[in-house]
Amino acid sequence: MGGRLCIPAISPTTMSASTDPTGPERVVAAIIRDGDGRVLVARRPEGKVGAGFWEFPGGKVDPGESQSEALRRELHEELDIAVGACTFLPHYRAATPPGIDLAFWRVDAYEGVARGREGQEIRWCPPDTLPDLPFLPADRPILARLRLPSFYLISDVDHLGEALFEERLAQAAARDALLLQLREPWPASRLRAYAQHLRALLAPYGGRCIVNGDPNELMGCADGIHLPASHLARIDARPAATLVGASCHDAGELRRAAAIGCDFAVLSPVKLTPSHPDAAPLGWARFRELAAEVLLPVYALGGMTIADRVSAETHLAQGVALRSGVFGKDADLPVP
């Protein structure tokens, strides 16, 4: 029968490898979205361990099954749907204890109308509302990922001028809901005013603007705050913003961003960049090692293009952060 294991939580800042010599218990979970971007979640029914908690549908992988086979079987048993195409999400990592190997898959196509075949309540929820539900602790790190896009755009207003920048931004926003970081060498007063302008520009498209700088000077003017590494080192608590990101360059900064409760981090530089020619690139292998140390969503920055998204996700990134790759002279717009 279908049904996820009720998995207890571990520390949300680190992942532990299984030391069970018999091998971990393999479990699969599904991310299913509808045409409006809502995510399907299920509530564990009375009589099951963890009754009343919400979870992503899925269940145990039986001996001899592949993960995708188990996913299709479990979703048919639980939801009465026939899954077609599905994609493994290596960067979706939950707070599982040793002995549990929980793999998330995105369902790209299915047939049927989802219903709770085992008496469980199911619900289609906008990603921003999921943190309001009592989720299984192991699943909670996934909620942040569902609220974040694959591309994190960084402004280039000083180089392009406001008119051209906004034209290119609107082209990208019309194609996909964007997350934009306003990062310019401006005084706080100008940053505040322009952040409010960009927030209004993006809102009709479902996009969000967060501003890079001192939260004491910039709080409230945008949809969130992005902390430079220098500010991350000086604060002891998460700023009271809806969305908080942080710039990181090593394992210590990543751990600090996770410890204070940032929603995501940006790790750089992954590749050589013209803007920082003297900075030694991490490379994808080292990026993966660092990203694996935290459950925090981490964007790859430095020499990134739109085409790097798949490689980034393979190396445990939430996606790519890019500036010239979107707003530069040879930008490939709009964002897919």
UniProtKB/TrEMBL annotation:
It comes from the Bacteria. Gene3D superfamilies: Aldolase class I (3.20.20.70), Nucleoside Triphosphate Pyrophosphohydrolase (3.90.79.10). It catalyses: 8-oxo-dGTP + H2O = 8-oxo-dGMP + diphosphate + H(+); 8-oxo-GTP + H2O = 8-oxo-GMP + diphosphate + H(+). Its EC number is 3.6.1.55. One of its GO terms (molecular function) is 8-oxo-dGDP phosphatase activity. Keywords: DNA damage, DNA repair, DNA replication, Hydrolase, Magnesium, Metal-binding, Mutator protein. Its cofactor is Mg(2+). Residues 23-148 form the Nudix hydrolase domain. One of its GO terms (biological process) is thiamine biosynthetic process. Belongs to the Nudix hydrolase family. This is 8-oxo-dGTP diphosphatase.
